[in-house]
Amino acid sequence: MMDLISNIVIAACIGTFLSVAPTLTRKSYLFGVKIPMEVYNCPEAIRMKKRYVAVCLSGATTVFVLYILVYTFVPAFLPSAWHFHLLFVPIFLLAYIPNWKHALNLKEARGWKVSESAFADTKSSYSRGNLSYLPWGWYVAGLIIVIIGFIVGYAAHPLPDKFSFRMSEFNQLFDGSWFGNMPVNFGLPLSGLFVLVLFWFVGIFIQSEKLQIDPQDPDRSFTQHRILRRRMGHCWGLSTLTMTSMFLLAECCVVFPGLPAVFRLGLFLMFLPIALPMAVALLAGQGGCKIKVKNIGGSTSAIDHGQLMHVDASRSDDKFWVLGMFYCNSNDPSYFVEGRFIGMGINFARPLIVIASLAFFYLFAKVFAIL
Q: Would the pTM count as exceeding 0.90?
C-alpha cells in the first residue's frame, strides 16, 4: 500500500505541475511563442490552454489507473512500477507540441508583432546575490541531522575494541558484523550527506545566476526577482532539511525495526522537495512576475541601472527556440537564459552544455537500467 500511495502522490504532483505550467509563464509567451502581452487571454489562446490541460489531466488519470491495476492484479511488480512516471514525457509532448505549432500559425495568421527588446542580464554577482544570501540555518540543521545519522549507525554497530594486524583476524574483521553492516551503518547517512551537498550547490546556483530584468520596468522586475530568489532559497533549504531527516528516519527504521509504524510515515518527507518548489513557482510565476510589489526602491530592492547588460535581441526570435523550449543560438555567449515555458532555458549551441547534457542522459540511462 505504501508503494501505491507514494507512486500516486508523485504522479499527482507531476500531473498538477504540468497542467498549470501555462499559467506560470510570462504573458509575453504562448506555448513557447513570443506574442504581444495584450493577446495573452484572447479566445484562441484560452481554448489552446484548455486543450492542453485536458490532455495532461487525461494522461495523469491513465497513469493513476495503471498503478491501481498493477496493485490489484500484479502487486509484486508495484515497487518497480515507478517507471510509469516516465509516461509523463510523451503525455507532455502530446499536449504541448500541437499547441506550440498552433501558436506559431496563429501568430503568423494574425500578424502579431512583438517588440525586439530583450530582457537585460545583470552584470555583477552583487546585483544577483552571493553566499551571504543563502539561508544557512537550513543547511546547518541538515548537517547536524547527517551527523546524528552517523552516530546512530555507529551506536548500532560500534567499532571493535582494537584492530588486529594479524592477517587471519583482519580477514575475520572484514567478514564480521561491523564491516558487513557498513551499508546499513553509513549508507543512508552518506546518502543524506550527498543530498545535502547537492542541494547546497543548487542553492548557490539559485542565488548566483544572472537575473533577467525587464528593461521597461527594471526596478519592479528586479524586486520581484529578489523576492523569488529569497523564497526559492528558503524552499531549497527546507527541502534539504526534510530530505536529510527522511534518511535519518529510514536509518532508524532499519537499525531499530521495533520502532512504531508512525516513524515510517516520516518517509513521506521525500515528497516535500517536489511539492515545495512547485508551490513557490505557482504563487510567484516565471521570474516572479506574479509577485505583487508594494514598495519599490531602497537599497535592498532597487537595482543600479548601470549593472544592466542588454543582451542580443535575437534571444526574442522564435527561430532560435526549438519547440519553443530549447534555445540554440551560437551568437549568444550565455549558457543559461530565461525559459519560455517551464523553468530555465539552456543554450544548446554552447559545446559545454552539449557535453554536460550527454553526460547527464548517459548517467540517467545507466541508473534507469540498474533500477
A: no
Stated as kind and residue range, the H or E segment containing 370 is helix 351-370
Three-state DSSP state, 291: coil
* 224/180 same-domain check: yes
What distance lies between CA 83 and its chain's CA centroid? 19
> Helix (H, G, I), strand (E, B), or coil: what is residue 159?
coil
Q: Report the C-alpha gap between 133 and 136 in whole angstroms.
A: 8
How do residues 85-131 score in pLDDT, each as one tens digit?
889 999 999 999 999 999 999 999 988 887 655 555 555 444 555 67
- Cα distance between residue 84 and residue 65, in whole Å: 11
**For residues 254 and 185, what is the distance between their CA atoms, to the nearest angstrom?**
9
- The answer to whether residues 66 and 151 belong to one domain is no
Mean pLDDT of 194-198: 88
Q: Residues 295, 327: one domain? A: no
Say how far apart CA 21 and CA 49 lie, in whole Å: 10
What are the distances in angstroms from CA 216 to CA 64, 221, 266, 296? 45, 9, 47, 14
Compute the distance between CA of residue 338 and CA of residue 42 in angstroms, rounded to an integer. Answer: 24
Shared-domain flag, residues 110 and 126: no
- Do residues 109 and 129 both lie within one domain? no
Q: Are residues 70 and 42 in the same domain?
A: yes
Domain final position from 281, 309, 337: 309
Nearest-CA neighbor of 325 among 27, 89, 33, 15? 33
d(CA 282, CA 194): 28
Q: What sign has the CA pseudo-torsion 140, 241, 185, 257? A: positive
**Residue 353's domain spans which residues?**
311-371
- Based on the domain organization, do 191 and 273 belong to the same domain? yes
Q: How far apart are CA 95 and CA 262, in angstroms?
A: 40
The answer on 128 and 104 residing in a single domain is: no
Q: Total structural domains in the chain?
A: 3
Domain boundary among 64, 97, 114: 114
The beta strands (E) that lie in 280-335 are given as 308-310, 321-322, 326-327
- Cell numbers describing residue 231: 523564497
